[in-house]
Specification:
The complex is a heterodimer. Chain A is built from 20 helices and 26 strands. Chain A is of the alpha+beta class. By secondary structure, chain B is an alpha+beta fold. Chain B has a seven-stranded mixed sheet, covered by helices on one side. In chain B, helix 1 runs antiparallel to helix 2. The chains are: A alpha+beta, B alpha+beta. At the A-B interface, strand 9, strand 11 and strand 12 of A face helix 2 and strand 9 of B.
């Protein structure tokens, strides 16, 4: 190797004079290190061998002279970002630099964004699939960087390495820890929805972050992706006004852009060693309005990249979505029944029909408007909710299940409602028919809303990143789409004529339509089961039984005793519904089906059985915990490794400082959460995992069992 | 954060308290210069030792160039004869070109008047005047952050441009011909009575070596 390096130095000198020889460098050569007066730079490959077609991480690692620094992608007031120019074989691909979260570097009133001591800049290189396995893959990189203390020196380095290829991926022996450490420094997806606003010279970044403890947070700083957006040297202030965490900063010199992107860094004191967190802020839509209005425009971080959509597009999609809603299993029966009503009253005047259609449309729109207004109001109050928010409350879910079940019973013929809001009663014509149509519309919207949650969430989620009026317009368009087919039937006689002739089939058809309603109710009970414990599911089912009893009694008609019994049963059903409590504890905190709730007794039992145990101590207010859960503990790699290891996974909720957990934390010299400890089945001492996790850290630990 | 006026800055400098300098510093970087607003007035001393005031140039277009002859980015533009050419074409059209040196004593690029004149002569520069600003007063007022950092003031005293010399932030001379020279473009647009197309750009380079 020494020889090779020497030969290569000669090559480099030669190349200095002949840039054209770049392509002629022998594949076996290696020059992975460049030292200048201020920086020692290495080009490091993560894998020891790569399979053609796969991606391999390559890192430019800089060890920087004390007191000197190199720069982030937006260098701040002065300076220049490190750049790498790659020369790769044809069809190879290289991704952008994955920048570690920068530090704020102050000097004489100016602030730079960069790195001291050391930094690793990882890029992913894809080896083409048609690369002959067994042949080394040559990588050349020309890196330029500016390194500054007080004075600045532009430096550069030329690297030439070759990556062995073959039929399987092999690890690189020496540098796994370096890659793990650098990845810990990469910003991760923010754990909360966020929004941005600008007012005069002040830019505000607001997070919907319920349950935090403000005095645990410090050193918050937002690094904008590009120059001119945020003033690097101006002070930034973090405020927590539960549930909104707000960072205010001073605007930069450029005009306000459409969206704010960058990295937020934050120090969290979790009781033990403080952790430095770094979150990606990806295109937070900037609104130039009041903070109250922007609170409505919460952007879900998990949502697909928000390509700016024009208002007509949003509205068109909402209308189309509304049309589709007519086909949902919980909506279609309602619409079908309304249509049957038209069939059986084919003799009605055209005006009466149109009036019914308009009333139905009005009912749908009113219900949607009310729902939208409630949503926007809750939003502006700071609740982190989205479309389908009503389904987050198990009581509401149970009541909706009641409604769908009752409609199903009605369709099945268990009872009839005089002047029924399903429109099958005698009084379809005339005034009560108008009211009937209106309430059918309301009913359609009410039963449609839960159905929309899973299907429409993404589209409406986007609408909610817009201003209040736009969101409301989108909701109303959704309603208009829902109402449109029936309105069309009533307004255009030609369309109504395609409906089949009335007959005995109508009753059968009506009864068949009961079953989609029952299926929808079953789905809601399944939703309820995710949110609450088995007792709640039992209460809801019992309530439905009481409801069925009441409606059956009502259907039989008759005396005071029967009516009283029916009312008592309904009251009982409602009481049962209202007793439903959301399941408390870590289920809401940690979305992990693998985990069990920690208790000392459970822990002791598992240990006595000789099972390996992974303990995760967390708290609702702990951001570090949440980030770890998202980045590492929600990953498939983790789940698979956990399953293969046979380890039990115990999650302890320290939100209210449970004394059993405090005792365990003390045993591991922690004053707070998070704490991750892996207990082996054998005599080995338990392994305490780092406070900031990556998937590979946990997976490696589990594989070590 | 409220802008800090010059008197406050002076007070900070006199107090020489590290803590105060830090707090003031955060605001200093932003400066008072805003495109479309009257350029902040200043007085100073030229390399030849005579007093100079911005007001005296009312009626003419003025270019301010922050410079530090030891900074690699300044050397890029002087080494490639780019800054000199930009200066000459401006001065030939009657533009006043003021090169400002805000390096503090003991810091990189700090020179006395004689040295400043010698350097200008050696590199064939064509500034109308060179202003020595070792206390950084003018630099802080304008929020000059880098060398080079360029400002253009119109004959009415309104700031029309602030930012970089050109569009490619690098220390490579070879990038100059690929880059758009923002100063030349802005001066031409102003001469033609058009609005400046890029009135604020990223100034790139070394930091201005203010007193620490």
């Amino acid at each position: 190797m020494v020889n090779a390096v020497n030969r290569l130095s000669a090559w480099r000198i030669f190349c200095g004079f002949m840039a054209a020889c770049v392509l002629a460098v022998p594949a076996a050569s290696a020059n992975d290190r460049v030292s200048t007066d201020n920086v020692t730079a290495r080009l490091v490959v993560e894998a020891g061998q790569v399979v053609p077609g796969d991606t391999v991480a390559v890192m430019l690692h800089q060890t920087i002279r004390e007191h000197w620094h190199t720069y982030w992608r937006n260098p701040g007031d002065s300076g220049q970002e490190t750049a790498i120019e790659w020369t790769l074989p044809d069809n190879a691909d290289v991704g952008p630099i994955q920048w570690m979260a920068p530090d704020r570097i102050e000097f004489a009133g100016l602030v730079n964004h960069g790195y001291s001591d050391q930094v690793g800049l990882i890029s992913d290189i894809t080896v083409p699939a048609d690369w002959p396995a067994g042949t080394d893959f040559p990588v050349q990189a020309e890196a330029t960087w500016l390194v500054c203390e007080k004075v600045c020196i532009p430096e550069s380095g030329r690297f030439e390495i070759s990556i062995p290829t073959g039929g399987e991926t092999l690890p690189n022996s020496g540098d796994a820890d370096l890659f793990a450490a650098v990845r810990q420094g990469l910003p991760v997806e923010a754990p909360w929805p966020y929004t941005a606003a600008v007012q005069g010279d002040v830019v505000t970044l607001a997070f919907q972050a319920p349950g935090l403890e403000a005095d645990r947070l410090s050193d918050a700083h937002f690094f904008a992706d590009a120059w001119g957006i945020v003033e690097p040297a101006a002070e930034q202030t973090l405020q927590y006004d539960a549930p909104v965490l707000r960072l205010t900063m001073r605007r930069g010199e450029l005009p306000v852009p459409a969206a704010l992107s960058g990295v937020l860094t934050l120090r969290e004191d979790t009781g033990g060693e403080p952790s430095r967190l770094a979150f990606v802020i990806d295109r937070a839509t900037l609104t130039a309005t009041t903070p109250a209005a922007t609170a409505m425009a919460v952007q879900a971080p998990a949502a697909a990249p928000a390509t700016p959509m024009a208002l007509p597009m949003i509205l068109a999609f909402a209308f189309l979505g509304g049309l589709l809603l007519n086909l949902m299993p919980c909506v279609f029966p309602v619409l079908a029944i309304k249509a049957l009503g038209l069939v059986s009253h084919a003799g009605d005047s055209r005006a009466a029909r149109l009036w019914g259609g308009l009333a139905y449309t009005g009912g749908v729109l009113c219900a949607f408007a009310l729902l939208g207004a409630a949503l926007l109001m809750l939003r502006s109050g700071g609740a982190a909710i989205g479309w389908g928010f009503q389904l987050q409350d198990p009581v509401v879910v149970a009541l909706l299940a009641y409604v769908l079940f009752a409609v199903g019973l009605n369709l099945a013929g268990v009872f009839e409602v005089a002047g029924s809001w399903t429109g099958m009663g005698q009084s379809i014509a005339g005034r009560s028919g108008t009211a009937g149509s209106f309430f059918t519309g309301v009913l359609a919207a009410v039963v449609a809303a839960p159905c929309t949650a899973p299907f429409m969430a993404a589209a409406l989620g986007f609408a909610f990143t817009q201003s209040g009026p736009v969101a409301m317009a989108a909701i109303l368009m959704l309603g208009a789409g829902l109402a449109a087919p029936y309105l069309l039937l009533t307004a255009v006689p030609a369309v109504a004529r395609i409906l089949p002739k009335p007959g005995a089939w109508m009753n059968t058809f009506k009864q068949v339509l009961a079953f989609p309603m029952f299926a929808s109710a079953a789905w809601l009970i399944w939703v309820l089961a995710q949110q609450a414990d088995p007792d709640a599911v039992f209460a809801a089912l019992l309530g439905m039984t009481a409801l069925a009893f009441a409606l059956w009694l009502y259907g039989k008609g008759g005396g005071v005793v029967r009516h009283a019994l029916a009312l008592a049963s309904i009251a009982g059903a409602l009481w049962l519904g209202a007793t439903i409590q959301p399941a408390d504890g870590p289920a809401a905190l940690v979305q992990s089906s693998e985990g069990e709730r920690f208790s000392q007794a459970r822990f002791d039992t598992l240990r006595a059985e000789g099972r390996p145990v992974l303990v995760n101590m967390t708290a609702a207010w702990c951001i570090t915990c949440k980030v770890n859960e998202r980045v590492a503990l929600a990953s498939d790699e983790f789940r698979n490794a956990l399953r293969n290891s046979g380890a039990a996974y115990l999650i302890g909720d320290w939100t209210r400082q449970d004394p059993e957990i405090t005792a365990l934390l003390r045993r591991y010299d922690r004053a707070g959460v998070p704490l991750y400890v892996l207990f082996y089945p054998d005599e080995r001492p338990p392994q305490v995992l780092p406070q900031l996790l990556t998937a590979s850290i946990v997976v490696d630990a589990l594989q070590g069992i | 954060m409220r802008p800090v006026n010059r008197r406050t800055l002076l007070g900070v400098a006199i107090a020489a308290s590290a803590a105060l300098a830090f707090a003031g510093g955060a605001a200093q970087a932003a400066g008072d210069a805003k495109v479309g607003k009257p350029a902040p007035g200043f007085t100073g001393t030229t390399a030849t030792g005579k007093p100079i005031a911005l007001d005296a140039y009312r009626g003419k277009t003025v270019v301010l160039e922050w410079t530090n002859h030891e900074c690699p980015y300044v050397r890029k533009h002087y080494g490639a004869d780019n800054m000199q050419k930009t200066q000459k074409s401006a001065v030939d059209k009657g533009v006043v070109w003021l090169s400002v040196i805000s390096s503090a004593p003991g810091e990189e690029g700090h020179v006395d008047g004689a040295e400043a004149l010698k350097i200008a002569q050696e590199r064939g520069a064509h500034p109308t005047e060179i202003i020595l600003d070792p206390e950084g007063t003018i630099g802080q007022t304008y929020g000059a952050r880098t060398t080079p950092h360029m400002y253009i003031i119109d004959p009415d005293g309104v700031l029309k441009y602030m930012g970089g010399i050109d569009s490619i932030a690098s220390s490579r001379k070879s990038d100059i011909e690929k880059a758009t020279n923002y100063v030349t473009v802005a001066l031409n647009e102003m001469a033609a009575g058009k609005p400046v197309s890029n009135p604020v750009t990223r100034a790139y380079g070394c930091s201005v070596k203010y007193a620490w």
